[in-house]
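Sequence in, structure out.
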Amino acid sequence: MLWECVYAHEQTPAYPKIVPSHVNGVVKVQLQLLNRRKEINYYEIGLFGKNFDELDFTTQNKIIKIGYGEKTDFDVYLRKSDLDKAVYICTASKILKSNKSRAVVSSIVCSKLGGEPL
């Protein structure tokens, strides 16, 4: 049996800090994405509550194109009024239709809001 190593992408920091933005009533979270997957070039950003219910947010691009081995910084903006609901910012690999084989595995990586590990 042949075993291959599977790599996921990386998102840092794991516990990002929430900082004020330039818009009144809106806060910002700054993150970095590193693509460690040769077969993946697109990642989708999402903001979720504690039960992984989707929450509204904005960012420059909700789907990021990034080459293998590259890093990119991105910001997520959310309303201060949603801070009590927001728990996770996640990036999920997007597999192209032409690349859907049994060998390609989707990955999801999340950072937990609050700035401090439990």
